[in-house]
Amino acid sequence: MPMYEYACTKCSHQFEELVSASGSTVVACPVCNSGKVDKLFSTFQRVRVGGGGLESAPAPTAGRAGGCCGGGCGCG
Ligand SMILES: [Zn+2]
User: Fold this and answer.
1) What's the Cα-to-Cα distance from 6 to each of 34, 64, 70, 72, 76, rounded to whole Å?
2) CA dist 36 → 1, 22, 66 (Å)
3) Which of 26, 27, 31, 66 could lock 13 by a disulfide, CB 3.0 to 4.6 Å apart?
């Protein structure tokens, strides 16, 4: 099940909640029990960015503005 981060619109408390794939999970703030919460983002993405090990890899398209004329397409 994916885990999402929510922010309560009533007391501004932020918390994480596991939700079912069907999206039928009712999320309520654990502090004030309000059901009015905003979904922020999946924590899976945040974990993947901070994992490390990929920072030394060169960016594939850095410095090539056109995306073409780099050899191989025959336009040069
Ligand atoms: Zn709240």
Assistant:
1) 12, 39, 44, 47, 51
2) 22, 19, 46
3) 31
What's the average model confidence in pLDDT over 34-61? Answer: 65
3-state helix, strand, coil in the chain (%, to 5): 10, 20, 70
Of 47, 41, 42, 37, the closest CA to residue 10 belongs to 37
Average pLDDT over residues 12-34: 87
Q: Is the dihedral of CA 62, 66, 67, 71 positive or negative?
A: negative
Q: How far is the CA of 36 from the centre of ligand 1 (A)?
A: 8
The Å distance, Cα 54 to ligand 1 centre, comes to 37
Helices (H), 1-76: 43-49
Residue 59 alpha carbon to ligand 1 centre in Å: 41
